[in-house]
Amino acid sequence: MKKVKMGVIGAGGIAYRRTIPGMLKAKNMELGAVMDVVGIEKIAKEFNVAKAYTKERDVINDPEIDAVYIATPAYLHLKHIKMSAEKGKHILCEKPLCVNLKDTREAINICKKNGVFLQEGYMMKFHGAHQKIKELIQEGKIGKVVYIRAQLSCWYPPIKGAWRQDPKKGGGGALIDMATHLYDLVEFFTDEQIRYVAAITNSQVQNYKSEDSSTTLIELTSGTHATVDCFFCIPDEASKTRLEIYGSQGSIFTEGTIGQSEGGVVEGIFGLGVSGYDAKQSKDMLRKFRNVNFRRINPYTAECEYFADCVLKNIPPQINGPKNSIHIAEVTEKAYISYRTKKILKIMS
């Protein structure tokens, strides 16, 4: 089977922990080279890669490399996208694609000009549980989706040199780093787009320049409501990363599906909303939720296989492609502006 030979730019961090291990399991992708400014020999040895570089241009100029995965700090993404596109390399890039909407548009235009594919790393929609939930919603199992709440938090104390803690390098903090994943996921479940957004972004605990707290209120095109809450100041053990989806005929709840793993638990209750009004409004009734089984999928492997399939078939990525990147970047930018201006803002993309 023909495989896409990948070069990794920024092989530490998320690439080392998650994406490279997932990439190695992809049936249509081969890891050809890794690059990082520190510890690259150790990384190359661990993943049995012959080519280890310390300069990004060496990966990009390698004639054997078909495409690159960019996992450098966000403020370097535009530079690395430009370098890669100009050498004709297709690009899978970690989110956020760039630190702001202006740079996102520029990155996409550069790729279009050079005829290369660009896919952003919103891998959570590839999770088996999320695929199953989308299927249940499309089948009408919970009726019209009325409200979604998505939660993702972690404990992220001050760390010297951490680029996510400096808005000039990361574009912001908890909102751009984590809430964007959930904006994307909410739209994935509903096949709708965010129409209005308002957010609170501030710092409550951590002493760095980026916000450690974000809560976003969303209205989708059909009128569905959603809230997304993401924090850098809640201990990991204190958060169950819950997803709650309420519909006119039932609901779906998950714990542990949002994040970097392939596991978690899903339960649902279906076939409701057909009885008359209960004047007693009894809230201590027995609720007959049932477990929902789903196929365990490594979301990073699935993300890489989809990207490689697009390259091999010469079909531009529709999942996490440029149009989605522009839209999420606009939602992100307006979420930040909404708190500064204390206004609900309309999304135009």
Structure description:
The chain has 349 residues and is α/β, with parallel strands linked by helices. It folds into two domains: 4-123 and 300-317, 3-Layer(aba) Sandwich (Rossmann fold); 127-297 and 330-346, Dihydrodipicolinate Reductase, domain 2. 33% of the residues lie in helices and 23% in strands. The strands form two sheets. It has a nine-stranded mixed beta sheet. Helix 5 links the parallel strand 5 and strand 6 (118-120). Helix 1 (13-24) crosses helix 9 and helix 5 (101-114) runs antiparallel to helix 10. The radius of gyration is 21 Å and the shape is globular. The mean pLDDT is 96.
- In CATH terms, what is the architecture of the largest domain? 2-Layer Sandwich
> How many individual helices?
10
Oligomeric nature of the chains: single chain
Tell me the β content: 15-25%
Query: Could you tell me how far the N terminus lies from the C terminus, measured between alpha carbons in angstroms?
Result: 39 Å
Sheet with the most strands: spatial strand order: 14-13-12-11-7-10-9-8-15
Return the CATH topology of the largest domain: Dihydrodipicolinate Reductase, domain 2
Query: Any idea what the shape is?
Result: globular
- Ranges with pLDDT <50 over ≥5 residues? none
Which structural class is indicated by helix and strand composition?
Answer: alpha/beta
Structural domain count = 2
Q: What Rg is obtained from the alpha carbons, in whole angstroms?
A: 21 Å
Q: Can you give the mean pLDDT?
A: 96
Major sheet: 9 strands, mixed
Query: What order do the helices and strands follow?
Result: EHEHEHEHEHEHEHHEEEEEEEHHE
